[in-house]
Amino acid sequence: MQGRREELRSFAQERGVSFTGEVYFRPVHRMPAYENSAAASAHLPVTDDLCLNHVCPPLYPELRDEDVDYVCDVMSWPGFLHVHAAAVASESESFTTFPEECFQCLQCFQCARAGRADCARCARCRDRAALEEAQKKGMHWSNAL
Question: Taking phi first (over 0 means left), then psi (-120 to 50 degrees means alpha), and beta for anything else, what does residue 115 get?
Answer without folding.
Answer: left
